[in-house]
Amino acid sequence: ALCPGRLVRPQAKGKAGLLRAARAQWMPPKRQEDSGGSSGSGRATRSSKRSVSEREAQPAPKRPRSDKGKSKQRSMDTTSERADEPAGDAPRRGNEAAASSSGGGSSHEPSAAQQRAEARQAALEAAEREALEMLDESSARARAGAPSWGGPSHALQGLLRKLGAGLDDLLPSASSHGRLKTILAGLKGPDESMQLASLTELCEVLSIGTEESMSSLSVDVFTPLLISLLRQEHNPDMMLLASRALCHLMDAIPSSSAAIVHFDGVPLFCERLLSIEYIDLAEQALHALEKLSQEHPLAVLRAGGMLAVLQYVDFFAMGVQRRAVATAANMCRGLPVECAHLVADSVPLLSNLLSHHDQKLLENVCLAFARLAEAFSYSAPQLEMLAAQGLLPNVLRLVGGMASPGQSDAPVAVSDATYTMLLRMLATLCHGSASLCKQLLQLDASSTLHDVLSADATASQGSGFAAAISRPHDQLYQVLALAHELLPPLPKGSPFSAGAARLLAPKRRSKRNPEGEAAPVADSSAGERTPTEREQALLDQPELVELYASRLFALFMHVHSGAVNASVRSKSLSCMAKVLHFYPAAGLRDMVRSHAIAAFLAPLITSQEHASALLALHMAEILMTKLPAVYTDKFLREGVFDAAGRLAAQAPPPAAAGTAAATAAAAATASASATAAAVPFSSASGGASSTPSRPTPPPSAAAPPPSQAPRRTSRHGRPADADDAAASSLSSATSAAAAAAA
Predict the structure, then answer these.
(1) What does the buried/exposed string (b/e) look like for 550-579 if buried means 16 or more CB atoms within 10 Å of the residue's CB?
(2) What is the mean pLDDT of residues 582-602?
(3) pLDDT, tens only, 45-99
(4) How many CB atoms are closer than 10 A to CB 433?
(5) φ, ψ at 519 (rounded to 5°)
(6) Residues of the chain with pLDDT > 90: what percent?
(7) Is pLDDT above 80 for 20?
(8) Element (H, E) at 668
(9) Other C-beta atoms within 10 Å of 107: how many?
(10) Mean pLDDT of 198-215
(11) What Å distances lie between residue 258 and 345, 532, 546, CA to CA?
(12) 117 pLDDT tier (thresholds 50, 70, 90)
């Protein structure tokens, strides 16, 4: 039994017969010769008969063994054999001897054991032939460059498993292999009832199987067979069981999903959803598409999976609807821009689900839109295609639930992670499309952000103004990022780049030319720059930025004062800089009147956060350009000029040019401070010098010659050149600070 290749003759029955057969096959020739002579009842083996004939053909030895010795040896052998037999075998041996003596020399008919052995040998040969055919097929596939689907389909391992088919009764793993062989034979048969029974048994095996226990299952043999059974449209039970078996196969062997895609199983599942005849079959097909979309989203999308899972989503139960939308969200992951046309027909279906009352389904819809927006972030036409079906108002309504979850118009409150994802998606839409940014401003997105930030400000003031904002840092950062993207980007040469402060420095009023005409010297590149589309939208509708600033500017200052995260503080300052840059100059004075901006900027210029210092310098430059009469005195009073001069003096210049810039900045700052100090004001001037920069002519001096124009004066009565010197000093200090930070 342990050696299937050596068949036991049918005469050897019972334990004694097995022992005699093993002794006859494996004992030395001399022992076989002795035991062959002791078999007087006709049960001698073939090897013992051969040894007797050879012994008779040989010449007699010189000292032959006596008959008395032979008979004694035979009696001892017979006694030992009978002693080895169990008690129940002795009568049977006597009956067999009687039957043998009565039968004479007639040939024995094949017993059941011999038939089983022959059948097993035939099965081994058939399995070996099949394994060799699989080996040839696998070699041909490897030469053709076709993909492999994991260990269970490897031809060499299959050959080794099939060569062990004779041990099915001894090894448990081999028994499962024999069961799979029986199932495979039933699936290949012509009888549909047998196919249904085999499919049912296969589903049972796969439902409790694992990748280790199913190592004997060949994926590339079972998969095409199951897909062919899935095409049997006349038999819905067979299609249902085949789709269920494929789902269990993907659970047990995850690598089998590649084989299902390769053998064109995805279009069949999509067809079962597009033309629903049996609801159970449609649900099972949807289950299969969900598993396939996790590993092969693009293959499912190319087969029409997005429209298939969303077209009749309302007809399913709530659990199936969630699975359908989750499958659609999986197909939106990592989508190339070239495949945008594959989701164009499904965008209206997804947009309609934004007002659904189920939280989990709604979060999956938001996830799908967020992934699509991320995939199309650099393609304005594709982003506008996503928002063409009412995406922006629906998302704004959902974001409004952050401020008042129970009182907003949102259908249901979603999780904090989903709120953060929606804010990031809106910022991506604004960054990628100017028209969508204008639409958000027209939809009063600033009001929604005001409600969110005012709730945070109220929470922080309840425990002290300097307390941390109650919301998570990443969510608060996304709120500020959306507010930042609602306004156009600052002109090229941001304060964060080297030498950018010089590019962003406001145009200074020049002194009088020899002809006596006031000709402001402007940057040629800035003067020739045409407004962008987003900037032109604010120029055409200045009320948009005015409404934005009136609602959010004060909150930006509150958030900066209460936040502890550096990125949140920097983003709030950037939003303030954008407001000051794009706000119309005519109304800027009224907007900043109620805010202590000078006292807010002075400590930021000397802070350890370089980004905050650069943004503070940039905002000071903007205010000195647009409102010099207002902020010259305020900056001197609060120490803004002094802080800028000290920052420029501390900067270690890397080259001679940097040394010259720092020296010029320090000199200009001192000159501006001295000039402004010549005019008395109520409070101390924070580091101003007592030496005037230009001597004031006495009252009795003669009038200026006619070739010179009269000197301009400010509303304070001092020369306007003092404002020019102050603006020049701040610009030089900003340039030096930017270079030092770079």
Answers:
(1) ebbbbbbbbbbebbeeeebbbbbbbbbbbb
(2) 91
(3) 444 444 444 444 444 444 444 444 444 444 444 444 444 444 444 444 444 444 4
(4) 23
(5) -125, 100
(6) 43
(7) no
(8) helix 656-677
(9) 5
(10) 90
(11) 27, 48, 57
(12) confident
Q: Which DSSP letter does residue 451 get?
A: H
725, 623 Cβ separation under 8 angstroms: no
φ, ψ of residue 470 in degrees (nearest 5): -70, -30
The phi and psi torsions of 691 (rounded to 5 degrees) equal -95, 120
| CA–CA gap between residue 18 and residue 397 (Å, rounded) | 86
Q: What is the mean pLDDT of residues 704-713?
A: 43
Q: Which of 277, 238, 247 is nearest to 265 (CA)?
A: 247
Q: Would you state the pLDDT for residue 244?
A: 96
In the block, residue with structure tokens 């009023």: 509
Helix (H) or strand (E) holding 385: helix 380-386
Gap between the Cα atoms of 454 and 71, Å rounded:
117
- Token pair, residue 626, equals 């647009």
Query: Looking at the predicted structure, is the pLDDT value of residue 578 above 70?
Result: yes
Check the CA dihedral 520-522-524-526 and report its sign.
Answer: negative
CA 54/CA 727 separation, integer angstroms: 126
Q: Using alpha carbons, list the distances in angstroms from residue 663 to 410, 617, 647, 658, 672.
A: 59, 18, 12, 9, 14
Q: Residue 579 and residue 80: Cα distance in Å, rounded?
A: 112
CB 355 within 8 A of CB 411: yes
Q: What is the pLDDT of residue 455?
A: 73
Distance CA 9, CA 257 (A): 50
Nearest 5°: phi and psi at 713?
-125, 150
Instruction: Determine the Cα–Cα distance for residues 283 and 273; give it in Å rounded to an integer.
Output: 8
> How far apart (Å, rounded) are the C-alpha atoms in residues 255 and 570?
47
Q: Which residue in this structure is represented by tokens 């983003």?
A: 571
The tokens describing 598, both together, are 């000078």
Task: Name the more confident of 559 and 492.
Answer: 559
Secondary structure (3-state) at 503 = helix
- 3-state SS of 202-264 is HHHHHHCCCCCCCCCCCHHHHHHHHHHHHCCCCCHHHHHHHHHHHHHHHHHCCCHHHHHHHCC
- By CB atoms closer than 10 A (0-12, 13-18, 19+), residue 318 is exposed
Question: In whole angstroms, what separates CA 29 from the centre of its chain?
Answer: 73
Please write the tens of the pLDDT for every residue from 635-681: 999 998 888 888 788 766 554 444 444 444 454 444 444 444 443 33
